[in-house]
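Page header: ASSEMBLY MODEL / two components / 228 residues total.
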Amino acid sequence: AQSVAQPEDQVNVAEGNPLTVKCTYSVSGNPYLFWYVQYPNRGLQFLLKYITGDNLVKGSYGFEAEFNKSQTSFHLKKPSALVSDSALYFCAVRDMGNTDKLIFGTGTRLQVFP
Amino acid sequence: DTGVSQNPRHKITKRGQNVTFRCDPISEHNRLYWYRQTLGQGPEFLTYFQNEAQLEKSRLLSDRFSAERPKGSFSTLEIQRTEQGDSAMYLCASSPGGGANVLTFGAGSRLTVL
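Prediction written out in full:
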């Protein structure tokens, strides 16, 4: 079965510093991987996805993610964090079959301090 | 295109009452998904529609839960005889058919069962 794991419940970083939010995956076949962000009392907003091709994927709001097949990881990164980046971040993997159904991790809360 | 719309945004009900949530997907999207999210957890898949056909249901979807998508447009999720454990955010998402698509989520409907 497809699954993702987010090993950190919370990540704290100072504004202006680089940030990394970790995600590892377990899949059968080639993974389709996604990152979403959730602000308080809001739905999930799509940030970026990896389907195939370049291992470094660029997304919205200056975020990027690196696909690493040997380490089965898909970590989310940003070179310089903003206080407004503080939110809940979810990694997800597309389920097997002919749908776009996603299986989500448990989420990582990112706190950026001024 | 106004995105995915969900109503009501917040519902407070007493245990044992029935509640219904509505989701209006992006108009050209033929795939529709319901997820449930509890505090501190990632979204969990409930059910999936392609057009008007309900093609997949999670074991999380007990007999008290029913979802419909008449005419392949809006969808409703009804919970009968609500229990306190049903308190959660109910998220709806839609995607177009074909390819590795991104799910677009609504803002969610938060259910509080007293």
